[in-house]
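Dear Dr. K.,

Following up on our conversation at the group meeting, I've run the structure prediction for Zinc ribbon domain-containing protein from Allohahella marinimesophila. I'm pasting the input sequence below exactly as I used it, so you can double-check it against your construct before we proceed with anything downstream. Let me know if the numbering doesn't match what you have in your notebook.
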Amino acid sequence: MPLYDYKCAQHGVFHELATMAEAGMPCRCPQCSELSPRIIMIPPQVLAMAEEKRKAMARNEKAAHEPIVTTSSLREARAKERDKAQQDSRRKSGGGCGCDHHDAQSGLRKQVVYLADGSKVFPSQRPWMISH
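The predicted structure tokens came back this morning:
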């Protein structure tokens, strides 16, 4: 038999075994014998959960029953929409975010120095990175 939670107005929450047929019926408080309604307790970790995680869990739960069906043509169309949106935002802001960081990074990636032993060195990039 399942264990259900009930709440007495005077003595608070208590737990009782009941058949599934009696699940919706009130139960008598063990201390005062008053009829007490069944309650559904929410685990505390759900209440304290980050909003992003809660939304992700809800989205995953929905996807288990209603999976998103996709095709290569739909993926290509979505990719084109994303690219167009990025280009539009760059045009509106005057190209990129204005920090010149992105252009500098792409220029740094192109700088490769080959040493006499054949190993590569990237002078301006991550000095802690080991070349191979």
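Two things stood out to me. Strands lie at 3-8, 12-17, 27-28, 35-36, 38-39, 113-114, 120-121. The chain has four helices and seven strands.

Best regards,
J.T.
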